[in-house]
Each structure stands twice: as C-alpha cells, then as structure tokens.
Design a protein that fits this description.
Chain A: InterPro entries: NuoE-like (IPR002023), NuoE_dom (IPR042128), NuoE_N (IPR041921), Thioredoxin-like_sf (IPR036249). Chain A: Keywords: 2Fe-2S, Iron, Iron-sulfur, Metal-binding. Chain A: Its cofactor is [2Fe-2S] cluster. Chain A: Pfam families: 2Fe-2S_thioredx. The complex is a heterodimer of chains A (154) and B (424). Chain A is an alpha+beta fold and 154 residues long. Chain A folds into two domains: 58 residues, Arc Repressor Mutant, subunit A; 77 residues, Glutaredoxin, CATH 3.40.30. In chain A, strands 2-1-3-4 form a four-stranded mixed β-sheet, covered by helices on one side. Chain B is of the alpha/beta class and 424 residues long. Chain B has three domains: 214 residues, NADH-ubiquinone oxidoreductase 51kDa subunit (Rossmann fold, 3-Layer(aba) Sandwich); 84 residues, Roll (Ubiquitin-like (UB roll)); 90 residues, NADH-ubiquinone oxidoreductase 51kDa subunit, iron-sulphur binding domain (de novo design (two linked rop proteins)), CATH 1.20.1440. Helices cover 42% and strands 11% of the residues of chain B. Chain B contains 17 helices and eight strands. In chain B, the strands form two sheets. A four-stranded parallel β-sheet of chain B has the order 3-2-1-4, with helices on both faces. In chain B, helix 7 links the parallel strand 2 and strand 3. The longest helix of chain B is centred in the last third of the chain and has 18 residues. The N and C termini of chain B lie far apart (45 Å). The chains are: A alpha+beta (154), B alpha/beta (424). Chains A and B meet through helix 2 and helix 5 of A and strand 3, strand 5, strand 8 and helix 13 of B.
Chain lengths: 154, 424
C-alpha cells in the first residue's frame, strides 16, 4: 500500500505530465525516498496506481542506475570509477573502503549502515578522486581521510 | 578578456539571488526580446551569432531552432528542454554554470523558449548534482514570483511554464531522443530519426533540446549582438568556451576562455603544466568519446573545425590527460568498461560489441593478450563505427580506441609480447 503522503506526492507529479504513466520515474523516486528502496510489493502498488503493468514499470526501474530494487544501507556510497578518477588513483580509495567496510561492490554492511556502489563520472574531474555518501559530495579524497568521512554517518 | 558566462560566478559558487542578478543586468534579455523582437528575430540573431551547441555535437543553435514549426496551426504544447544531464566522463563544465548562476540558465531558457514559442520547459538535471537541484528550484520559484515565468510574462502575452526533472542515472539520457524518452517516464533508449524532435519530440510535440552552456550564451547574445559574440572568439567559431583539464597536471580546473585557445595553452598556462615527474603522452580533448590528440597536436586551436582537422572532436571541450606513468591500455579499458556498462542494449553491435572490446582490453591489461587481439580491436572500431549502430554511443566509444591503437600501438604490442602490463 502506498502511504497517503506518497500518493499525494505522486499525484502532484502526474499533474505535471500529459499521460499518467509518464510520472513513472518520479513515482519510483518518491517511493524510494520514503522506503530506501523499491521492493516487489512497492513496485506492484506503484504500477497499479499509475495504471501500468508491474512488468512495464520494472523495465523502467531496472534500466536506471539509481533506482534500487534491492535493499540498501542507510547511506549509499557512490564511488566514481570513471576515467579522471581512475587516472588519479581511485582504486586505492576502493581498496580502502572495501577493506574497512568488509564488503564488495553491491553489498551492504551487516549493521545496515553502508552500501558500496561504483558510479560513473560524478562531474567533478578537476577534484578527482571523488565519491558521494548519500547526498554529500567529497572531492580530492585520500585513503587517510576516509575513516573520518565515514564516521560522520550513523 | 571578457567572460560573460562566468563573470558572476564566485569560487565558492554561491549564486546570485534574482534581485542581485537583476542588479548586474540579469533578465534584461527577457525584457528586450518581449518588447523589441519577434520569435523569428531571436532565431535569426542566434543564427547570425554562429553559436554552436556546446553539448558536443556543435550544431548551429539558431539553425536547429529554425526547424520547429511556427504559427498558429502547429501542434501544442511545444517544449524546450535544457540538457543538464552532464555525464560524459571527464566533463565538469555545466556543473559550474548550474551551481554558480542558475538565473542565467533560466534567462537563456526563456530566450530559447520564446524563439520557438515553447509553452513548457524542463531542466533535465542529473541526479548527482544535489546543490544544483537546490539552487535551480529556488531560482525557478523566484523567477515565477517576479513574473518572468508563468502566464503573460511581463504583460507580453507570452506564457511559459518551467519544471525541474532530476534523472536517475544513465549516460544514454544525454542523447537527446533518449532524454525525451526518460522525460516521458520510459527507458532511455534512443529514437529513430526522422522524425526529428524539432517536429515530433516530447509527447510527440515539437521540442528543442539544448545544452546548458549553449543556453547560458543566449542572454549575452541578445544584449550585445551577434557581432560582439563572434568577436569574443579567436577563430571562426564564435563566443567563449568553458574549457577544462583533468589528470596529472598542477592545477586541474575549468576556465571560460576565448574560443580557439590552443591545447598547449590550456595545459601549460591554465592547468599549470604537467605535475613534476610526469610527461604529457596524449589527451582526449572533449570527454571520453573523443579521439586522442598527441604531442604533435599541442598547438591546435580548440574549436570545432580545427580539432576535427586533426582527427578528433571538440566534444565538451573538457580535456583528460594521459601521462607517461599511466598505461594507455588500462586507460582505454576504463573507458570501454564505462561505455559497455552504459550501452542501453537496444541495438546489437553496441550491446554485444562493447563488452567484447572491454574483455579483450582486460586480457591485454592482465598480460593474457594474443597477437590477433589487435586485429580484433581494429575490426571493432569499424564494426561499431558510424552507420552500423542506432545512435552515437558506440561510434563515440570507438574514437578513443581507434586513436589509441594508432598512436600507442607499440604499447598494445608490448602487453602481448611481454605478457604483462609494462606499467605495473
């Protein structure tokens, strides 16, 4: 079941587009914002609300990198693995994160705190290597300061 | 040296409020077009200015607009979309404009919308640009409150709505027809052309998609004229350009400069030269999908025809440097991993070919390459080249590969002969 708040936010998005299902991506974003990820059940409820099949909405949900169809931790770390960050040695950051958190790409720490994902170019190549934790951008990151950065997130 | 696009952007990128923006001449272009110019007049002015699309393709902006059907009998609503889905690896120029002066973008969007008589406009912003999303939302609200957006703008009878859409991450969204599919809530796969979006775009209506930097040039062209805009440049291509340099240089960054500064000036003067102990080996001049330039090209002006004449593309004008301590095979492998991952999977050569290329490069990188691999890679640069795929993604991916094989062929051979990466 979608909550009243989710319904009202999705209705607003529907009002901005000429056909109901065009609000599909916005609806997925709204559901994910409230629930952290989009479960099969959430997907079915959202699809029914939009008047499309769950399969059709899933084809959209799974196309985009940042709609999560699996549970994620409270904070998602997006590590840029594109060219400028590669040249500037992002692999050291990756190794440090994986070792420190004890997880690989796509995994979540057992305490549900962090999920680690690779991400394409974050558009801050003059400050490589870069990563995001949730909505926060970190630039010119060194392995030494990673522990301090992570400690800001509970 | 004039820097119209970035003159009001401070190093901390705290943007001007609407009031502050007006005080430095902001929104004058909106007053001017609504009072003094017809939509056709604006289009002709921009055509005359020789403004070329800053997203990478370099098409004449006014000419692009001129394909939109005009007059009372045409399909409505018409749409204008700002392509703010900056995702070309190595590119970080639109972020500066989006975060640093959102009102300039909104003003440019009003100018473009008026020229094509659009009814609704969207900023298609990539998800990762959180600060930009906040600033643009605030600026759009201010523009509505001041009467620059909404019904009957400044009493002119012209009306325009504007919305922000944040994407959920896919390189394909930068391709304009794929972007339109994303805006319609669909998978971002490219559409067949024709019909071109100018005639049948968003929800089947006439639509123009312009890059952020392109749109930000417009208020200045309206205020100062086509001749002034042309005069900003050192070469035949008009205006300024936001150039960038990343990689092992002393001062990586982005700078608004006259169109046509040379590759050498960018690297040595603005980026402060190579870091101590590193030598320049090559550069992708305008993002991941452009051909390498090497030492012999350093004095080439960075404009569309000059870069094309030496076998590459201006692209986004943000350069990525390959230094002598970095393996060119590894460099290209990183790029092909990106392209293989971001292929939408819609057409076969791209979906199947790019992962194959990635795999071959990985085996070379690990010292497991075979002599015939070079031939296979060369085959792919043709098979995935222009004319064989549905959109420009795979041909773009082949540009750095084909030029790496051409300039750094010896380094590829060494990986095979020495059965290891010489840089490891």
């Amino acid at each position: 079941m979608l909550t009243a708040e989710e319904v009202s936010q999705i209705e607003h998005e529907i009002s901005l587009v000429p056909v109901r299902k065009a609000a599909g991506i916005e609806a997925l974003k709204i559901v994910q914002q409230h629930r952290g990820w989009v479960s099969d059940e959430s997907l079915k409820d959202t699809a029914a609300f939009l008047g499309v099949s769950a399969e059709e909405l899933d084809s959209v949900a799974t196309f985009y990198n940042l709609i999560f169809r699996q549970p994620v931790g409270r904070h998602v770390i997006l590590l840029c693995d594109s060219i400028s960050c590669w040249v500037m040695g992002y692999e050291k950051i990756r190794e440090h994160l994986m070792q420190k958190l004890g997880i690989k790409y796509g995994q979540t720490t057992p305490d549900g705190r962090f999920t680690l994902l690779p991400n394409v170019c974050l558009g801050t190549c003059d400050c490589a290597p870069a990563l995001m934790v949730g909505p926060d951008l970190y630039q010119n990151v060194t392995p030494e300061e990673l522990d301090e950065i992570l400690s800001r997130y509970n | 040296m004039e820097k119209p696009l970035t003159q009001h952007i401070t190093p901390d990128r705290k943007p001007l409020s609407l009031k502050e923006y007006e005080q430095v001449g902001g929104y004058r272009a909106v007053h001017k077009i609504l009072k003094e110019l017809t939509p056709e007049g604006v289009t002709n002015l921009v055509k005359d200015s020789n403004l070329r699309g800053r997203g990478g393709a370099g098409f004449n902006t006014g000419l692009k607009w001129s394909f939109v059907p005009m007059g009372p009998e045409v399909p409505r609503p018409k749409y204008l979309v700002a392509n703010a889905d900056e995702m070309e690896p190595g590119t970080f120029k639109d972020r500066i404009l989006l975060e640093g002066n959102p009102h300039q973008l909104i003003e440019g969007m009003i100018v473009a919308s008026y020229a094509i008589q659009a009814d609704i406009s969207y900023v298609f912003l990539r998800w990762a640009y959180k600060k930009a999303a906040q600033e643009i939302t605030k600026a759009i609200n201010e523009a509505y409150a001041a009467g620059y957006l909404g019904q009957n703008i400044l009493g002119s009878g012209y009306s325009l709505e504007m919305h922000l859409h944040t994407g959920v991450g896919r390189y394909m969204c930068g391709e304009e027809t794929a972007l339109l599919n994303a805006l319609e809530g669909k998978r971002a796969t490219p559409r067949a052309k024709p019909p071109f979006p100018q005639v049948s775009g968003l929800f089947g209506k006439p639509t123009i998609v312009n890059n952020v930097e392109t749109l930000c040039c417009l208020p200045h062209i309206v205020n100062n004229g086509a001749a002034w805009f042309k005069g900003l440049s050192r070469t035949g291509d008009a205006g300024t350009k936001i150039y960038g340099v990343s990689g092992k240089v002393n001062k990586p960054g982005a700078w608004e400069l006259p169109m046509g500064v040379t590759v050498r000036e960018l690297i040595e003067e603005y980026a402060g030269g190579m870091k101590n102990g590193y030598r320049f080996k090559g550069a992708l001049p305008g993002g991941a999908s452009t051909d390498f330039l090497v030492e012999e090209h350093l004095d080439t002006p960075m404009d569309y025809p000059s870069i094309a004449a030496v076998g590459s593309r201006m692209g986004t004008g943000t350069m990525i440097i390959l230094d002598d301590h970095t393996c060119p095979v590894g460099f290209v492998h990183n790029l092909q991993h990106f392209f293989a991952q971001e292929s939408c999977g819609f057409c076969t050569p791209c979906r199947e070919g790019l992962p194959w290329v990635e795999k071959i490069l990985l085996s070379l990188d690990r010292g497991e390459g075979k002599p015939e691999d070079i031939q296979l890679l060369n085959f792919h640069t043709k098979a995935l080249g222009p004319g064989n795929t549905f959109c420009a993604l795979a041909p773009g991916a082949m540009e750095p590969l084909q030029s790496a094989l051409k300039y750094f062929g010896e380094d590829f051979e060494r990986h095979i002969n020495e059965k290891q990466c010489p840089w490891k």
